[in-house]
Design a protein that fits this description.
One of its GO terms (cellular component) is apoplast. The protein is an alpha/beta fold and 348 residues long. Helix content is 20%, strand content 18%. The protein is globular, with a radius of gyration of 19 Å.
Length: 348
């Protein structure tokens, strides 16, 4: 379905169980005085071809532009915290979002801002690029669960409608996107079973307006092995892989959300009304720039292998640096220039 962070990665893992690489270092407070080291989990035997580049092939991908808009103006994120969130969780997510803009290029390399520069390569029919400026315009906390603790795709739109109608948020047709994040006690239609997040646009009949939006859920208590991989691993791996990797910010659910949020924002910016950049002939089920790179975080990824990433002195895994010294593990996205998945931590 449109803009869905699907579970293809889980299927890839079934085909390619990792070889053991020993236990992960215990999670401790971040150690900044030890330089990060590249981390290259042992490759499963015969999982990859003889090619030296595994991150995608232009021979297999036909990404096309369908003449719709991209988010070329400064992007205003209207952030809805649905359910109960603690301040530390919010801070991790906001630090990621605020690391995207070009004015945060001062962050250590490889940076979140440089990662977003791949999304900014996409243009609309006027030649305008996806914006490098991403702001948190406003936040709204729906801690009383206005639509209950189980949401459907339609009731998610109602959450947005309530926020717009009660006026904590404006109706921002030109620059706005609406990001709904559900806490770990909220179940959502198809969550864990088929999706970890998705994006679409609101229906005027539900909200009164057509507004691009995305939803991502905290899977920490429901299905971390599905939606927070590789910080949790499926039971069927049963010790045959390197084990779960340590999350860079110490929160499996939230650290897992970060990559899904990145995935959805990249797709929302390049295909906000599901008529811009995607592969495939069916606009109701497009393959977008995040879908093409699902499960790839570094050079050499493929076949259930995440690719070469980094570990800090406490053994925590990351591939991007953000504001205030924050670190994240975020999947790569498809580059229209390289015709392959790309990330700033690439080694080739």
């Amino acid at each position: 379905m449109s803009g869905t962070f699907s579970l293809h990665l889980l299927l890839l893992l079934l085909l390619s169980l990792h070889s053991s690489s020993g236990s992960m270092a215990a999670l401790t407070t971040q150690t900044l005085d030890i330089p990060p080291q590249y981390y290259n989990p042992k490759l499963p035997a015969h999982a990859l071809s003889s090619s030296k580049k595994y991150e995608g092939s232009s021979d297999l991908v036909h990404l096309r532009y369908h003449m719709g808009p991209v988010l070329s103006s400064p992007i205003n994120i209207y952030l809805i915290w649905y359910g109960k969130w603690n301040p530390s969780q919010k801070l991790i997510i906001k630090d990621f979002l605020l690391s995207i803009s070009a004015n945060h290029r001062a962050a250590a390399s490889p940076s979140v801002s440089k990662w977003w520069s791949t999304a900014s390569l996409y243009t609309d029919q006027t030649g305008a690029n996806v914006s490098r400026t991403v702001l948190i315009a406003k936040e709204y906390v729906d801690q009383l669960y206005s639509q209950g603790t189980h949401l459907t795709r339609l009731s998610i739109q109602q959450v947005i409608g309530n926020a717009v109608k009660s006026a904590p948020f404006p109706v921002d047709h030109k620059n706005g996107i609406y990001l709904i994040l559900t806490s770990s006690d909220v179940t959502v239609q198809d969550f864990c079973r088929a999706v970890c997040g998705f994006h679409y646009f609101t229906f005027p009949s539900m909200v009164g307006y057509t507004l691009p939006y995305a939803w991502v859920g905290n899977s920490g208590k429901q299905c971390p092995e599905v939606c927070a991989y590789p910080f949790a691993t499926p039971g069927y791996m049963a010790g045959s892989g390197p084990g779960a990797l340590a999350p860079p910010n110490g929160d499996v659910g939230v650290d897992g959300m970060i990559s899904v949020i990145g995935h959805e924002l990249a797709e929302l910016s390049t295909n906000p009304l599901v008529n811009a950049w995607y592969a495939g002939e069916d606009p109701t089920a497009p393959t977008e720039i995040g879908d093409l790179c699902e499960g790839l975080y570094g050079t050499g990824g493929g076949g259930g292998y995440i690719g070469q990433v980094m570990r800090d002195g406490a053994g925590r895994t990351f591939n991007l640096n953000g504001r205030r010294g924050r670190r994240f593990l975020v999947q790569w996205i498809w580059s229209p220039i390289l015709k392959a998945c790309a990330g700033p931590n690439a080694l080739d």
